[in-house]
Amino acid sequence: MIGLLAEKIGMTQLFDERGRVTPVTVLAAGPCPIVQVKTPETDGYAALQIGFGRKRESLIPKGLQGHLKKHNAAGIRALKEVRVQDTSEYKVGQELTVSLFEVGSKVDVIGVSKGRGFAGVIRRHHFTCGRETHGCVTHKQPGSIGASAYPSRVIKGKKLPGRMGGARVTVKNLHVVGVDPEQHLIWVRGSIPGPPKSTVLIRKNG
């Protein structure tokens, strides 16, 4: 599915003609130049490799520098592949813009959630606190995590304290509220993963 790389600017709210408020996330999407076109004949599948943003070349790994220079895209900050059904209408150097999307359509947004570090079960899995009465020492403990007789071990996948966040998250079926082709902006209803200034992928739904 065709998509665009974008930078998350932040959240705001819009009011309709009846005064109802809509929470939206503002994204600076594209323009994304096509760096490479992959076809089933040469690569085994059909996809577009798109770039986004600019970066000082000294900060780019040498191997990636060679790949970008080979395709006349030196200094690209981020690269991403998006699958397409037919690559015949696309070519290297062509720019994809927010004109791909229209108000009222649905999109999927893929990003990396905020890293929260090591977290307990209450914050990480929304467990309920224990009793806070006199003598109780299990306020924020997870409780029993398994029986001693059988299976005599902790079941795999048990919800326990651990690293929270910093994972790839896909939010599906977000409505496009507004599109500004001149400023390369797109407004989607609701929140998306990641902090402001993070890079996300907006993908057409269907």
Automatic annotation (TrEMBL):
UniProt source species: Eiseniibacteriota bacterium
Endpoints of the signal sequence: none
GO biological process per UniProt: translation
Pfam families: Ribosomal_L3 (PF00297)
Domain of life: Bacteria
Keywords: Ribonucleoprotein, Ribosomal protein, RNA-binding, rRNA-binding
Subunit structure, interactors included: Part of the 50S ribosomal subunit. Forms a cluster with proteins L14 and L19.
Example of a GO MF term: rRNA binding
HAMAP family: Ribosomal_uL3_B (MF_01325_B)
Record GO cellular component, one term: cytosolic large ribosomal subunit
InterPro entries according to UniProt: Ribosomal_uL3, Ribosomal_uL3_bac/org-type, Ribosomal_uL3_CS, Transl_B-barrel_sf
Keyword rRNA-binding found: yes
Protein name in UniProt: Large ribosomal subunit protein uL3
Family from the record: Belongs to the universal ribosomal protein uL3 family.
Function summary: One of the primary rRNA binding proteins, it binds directly near the 3'-end of the 23S rRNA, where it nucleates assembly of the 50S subunit.
